[in-house]
Amino acid sequence: MNKQAKRIQKPQLIHWRLYVVVAFVSLLFITLVVRAAYIQIIEPDKLRYESDMRTLRTTSREVQRGLISDRNGEMLAVSVPVRAVWVDPKRVYARDGFKDMRRWQALADVLHEPLTKILSRVKRHPKKRFAYLKRQVTPAVADYIKLLNLPGVYLKSESRRYYPAGEITSQLIGITNIDGIGIEGIEKTYDTWLTGTPSKQKVRKSRDGLVVERLDMVQEGENSNDLVLSIDQRIQQLAYRELKKATEINLATSGSIVVLDIRTGEVLAMANTPSYNPNSTDKLQAFRMRNRALTDTFEPGSVIKPFVVAAALEAGTIQDNQLIDTSPGWMRLGGRRVRDGRNYGDLSLTDILVHSSNVGISKVALSMPIEQLLGTYAALGLGTYSGIDLIGESTGVVRDSHRWSDFERATLSFGYGLTITALQLARMYATLGSKGILYPTSIVKLKKKPEGVQVLSADVANKVMRMLQGVTKAEGTAVRAHIEGYPVAGKTGTSRKAVAGGYGDDYVASFAGVAPVNNPRLAIAVMINEPKGDHYYGGDIAGPPFAKVMSGSLQMLNVEPVTSKDKVKIATLARTNQ
Amino acid sequence: MDKSRLDLTRIILNDLWLHRWVLLLATLVMLNAVAVVYTSYMSRSYTNQWDQMLQERDRLDIEWRNLLLEEQSQSEHSKITNIATKDLNMKRPLPNEEVVVRVK
């Protein structure tokens, strides 16, 4: 106590202490500066690395597959993001994941699968790092699973394709597989166009998981493209419904219908039966998935006759007012017979088509060289692709031979010995309506009218079309294809199906035509395969769906019907939007 | 002791005045530093906002897709035709029953 008191009284400077303190403090500072310099200048990489490890993340943005819509913007295929539930079995074991079985039970319940099945998937390969538990679960279910907080169970985003139109357009649109790759129809043909690639970007995230800095792109993504089809869903729906009805009533095996826009060659509807539901893909049957309108060929039968007349008129071997003698209702050609239903006597070209006389048309065909007929068929698109560019399209077969017997030439004129698709048939009739111009068919909505090829002279096309008007009138073969208000030019076809060694008992009934004759807008071809009811004539079977679809479609397209003058009203509207 | 000669405040002020440019620079440096902190803070919060908006866009896109599906299934043509014909007793006029109205 005393000593201390003295020191306070008499303060003295003790130099060495000062030096020690100064030296110590300086050393401290120097150390700090050196350390700072070391971290900042000499070796900054390690800490940067450590920081990046904690903050840098790669985020990826999923791109949904493009939408497919009809020409009026109605959706035909929409992708919706869903999640896949997957498990890392090794991690489940490492984290002692089976401790709380109630959670696994809840998972099984929400996935609608037995618990044992789910557990077996985890336990089967305990060393594996990946196994799907369930694919394509809805976001709501995914959120629930996330809250279950099961060790080793994760979610992964993927997408699911929905087809709102269902079976109406199923063969045309096709489907994608579970990984979102198109495997049928338009989905396959336009797969690259519809598919996008996800973009990946490096970002810096703050402690609470918010993105605070965007760094470089790891992978430049590509947006998917949408596809607008030429299909008019209203017409498509009507066509499918009527075709389905006709197929069922006639107990037919299958059927196809194609509606073409005469002025552009666009496909407005293309439907087939039997169909399938593209939204539930577990029970797919291949025969239901085929787009029969362009994959399946058939011998057309009488429906081809107008084009024989067109070829003859084009060649000038028959005049349009010429009468052809068909009595006695049959004729002999090289030991084979060509027969009519009855003896029609002298027939004009129009009557040959109206009564569908085989003898008459054979005489027309024999009047010109075979090259002329084959040339016309080829020019009208037989034996070639239609330009629609969809997978599975067949070209049909038109035999090319150096030697043709008279009988073969005759059969070619009433539609045997060659095969065509329903699409080709519709396209041929569209040519009659478009003044002889053949347009490439398109399933994609066109921005401008495509370049067509003049394959028949406008005069011949018009003449043949007017001749065909009689077919749906009282004395024709297809009264049931008659439409009040829209004059129809069309032709029936009934052909026996070939079997090994000849022709069997099954038929193909068809009807194709254009309307309205005064201002042709639509060409429709209907094909019903193997009807087994009381009727088998094309007019009875394929006529009614043709008439229903044609009149309905023309009304939907606001085509003015041919009516008496007193039904036309002139209205003046005060336009407010100008 | 002469008080005026040892006026500390004055000495300090004098001294500061002598080094006024240095002082000014020092202040600017400080302001600059604060500005750097501030702008980087702002840029981070804007980036964050941007990211949130992108997420919002994705969310809305998903909702839109679901609504689209709902709209499609509700406005299905055969469904509407059924309602019109069965519930509302409507019928489509035949082409020859139509009255054409030409707008001049």
UniProtKB/TrEMBL annotation, chain A:
Residues 255-550 form the Penicillin-binding protein transpeptidase domain. It is a single-pass membrane protein. Its EC number is 3.4.16.4. The chain crosses the membrane at residues 16-38. It comes from the Bacteria. It catalyses: Preferential cleavage: (Ac)2-L-Lys-D-Ala-|-D-Ala. Also transpeptidation of peptidyl-alanyl moieties that are N-acyl substituents of D-alanine. It is found in: Cell inner membrane; Membrane. The active site is at 302 (acyl-ester intermediate). Residues 62-214 form the Penicillin-binding protein dimerisation domain. InterPro entries: Beta-lactam/transpept, Beta-lactam/transpept-like, FtsI_transpept, PBP_dimer, PBP_dimer_sf, PCN-bd_Tpept. Pfam families: PBP_dimer, Transpeptidase. The gene is ftsI. It comes from Shewanella surugensis. This is Peptidoglycan D,D-transpeptidase FtsI.
UniProtKB/TrEMBL annotation, chain B:
It is a single-pass type II membrane protein. GO terms for biological process: cell division. It holds the Pfam family FtsL. Keywords: Cell cycle, Cell division, Cell inner membrane, Cell membrane, Membrane, Transmembrane, Transmembrane helix. It is found in: Cell inner membrane; Cell membrane. It comes from the Bacteria. The chain crosses the membrane at residues 21-41. Part of a complex composed of FtsB, FtsL and FtsQ. Belongs to the FtsL family. Essential cell division protein. May link together the upstream cell division proteins, which are predominantly cytoplasmic, with the downstream cell division proteins, which are predominantly periplasmic. This is Cell division protein FtsL. It comes from Shewanella surugensis.
